Amino acid sequence: MATTGAARDETTAQRPTVVSEPDYLLRVRGLRKHFPVRRGFLQRTIGYIKAVDGVDMEVRQGETLGLVGESGCGKSTLGRSVLRLIEPSEGTIEFDGKDITHIRTRAMKAVRADMQMIFQDPIGSLNPRMSVGDIVGEGLLVHGIRRRRQRENTVREVLLRVGLRPEYLNRYPHEFSGGQRQRIGIARALALNPKLIVADEPVSALDVSIQSQVLNLLVELKREFNLTYVFVAHNLAVVAYISDRIAVMYLGKIVELAPSIELYANPLHPYTRSLLSAIPNTDPGLRRERIKLTGDVPSPFNPPSGCHFRTRCPLARAKGTQNGICADQEPPLKEWQAGHLAACHFAGETA
Questions:
Q1: Closest among 250, 282, 278 to 264, alpha carbons compared
Q2: In the predicted model, what is the mean pLDDT of residues 70-83?
Q3: C-alpha triplet 203, 208, 212: angle, nearest 5°
């Protein structure tokens, strides 16, 4: 994978200027992504879907940050906004010490060699008209590696590393199983030797018997290539296995952020506790009392005032604050314990 250096050297002059010494590989501040809702013959904007609504987070070099939450909470939108696959509405994104929030397409192309994505759907994310060699090698071509033999050698090396035979490069996606297709997607992300990979539910579409194989592969690749992951998932058991730290999202906001072991042992936010209580456990001594949330997730078009979780929160009901402090004041995401952040007025308390 030494071939990737040539592609980066050609575009060095286009890289953005350094704005600070990077303590973190990725730093996000005040990130928002609001999608306009339009109606009528003139398609006038009547409001916005607040998919991501003011997110602050950092990802350290070499760590895996897990993003968890219910479907529709904004996890995937956050991951794609960080990579600028979709443009954020507000906020700043600093990657490797460089502010990439507003840099233009040509300069962003130079950064994309270091930022890659593994998609959820191993079928829809692969072009059925392209061979495996062309799919995995497309990024190399885009980033300046023109010699076909050089690209093929890199593709063979990457395929072998993800557990696929090098001779597969002339085959097409429909000839492979779901697990093999996802390995092709991983190989495509790995081909440019990136620093950061956003994995958007990479095992949720796979059989349970295959999920552990793919997860173990991602762990091995992280160790071997010093990768940094943002791992998006809704399966808490999967996130616990692979993540160093976990961020819990609810309705476009991060409501809790902590090291993986700490989060599972001592959740501070009532939403996190409800998620953890739903995890099946065969050991009676480790089972949690099931916390059932009432009502549906509010619409991101018109979220509740104050704390977005208050309408379903058993703690707010017990304290009678659904229409008090929880409705009037949005709780900030602050540090309650060392390295453990939560956005709740009554963090750590029980109903």
A1: 278
A2: 93
A3: 65
User: C-alpha distances in angstroms, 322 versus 70, 202, 305, 318?
Assistant: 21, 37, 10, 9
The average pLDDT across 183-208 equals: 93
Instruction: Determine the pLDDT at residue 285.
Output: 58
Measured distance CA(143)–CA(151) in Å, rounded: 11
Question: Which token pair is 257?
Answer: 């952020």
3-state SS, residue 217: helix
Judge whether 246 and 252 are in contact, CB under 8 Å.
Answer: no
The yes-or-no verdict on residue 93 having pLDDT over 80 is: yes
Section 329-344 average pLDDT: 94
**Chain centre to alpha carbon of residue 65:** 8
- Which helix or strand (DSSP H or E) is residue 221 part of? helix 208-225
Question: What are the b/e assignments for 227-246, b being 16+ CB within 10 Å?
Answer: bbbbbbbbebebbbbbbbbb
pLDDT one-digit tens code per residue, 97-148: 999 999 988 889 889 899 999 998 888 889 999 999 999 999 988 888 778 8
DSSP symbols for 276-345:
HHTS--S-GGGPPPP-PPPSPPPPTTSPPSSSTTTTT-HHHHHHT-TTTHHHHSPPP-EEEETTEEE--T
Alpha-carbon distance 66 to 256, whole Å?
Answer: 12
The fraction of the chain above a pLDDT of 90, given in percent, is 66
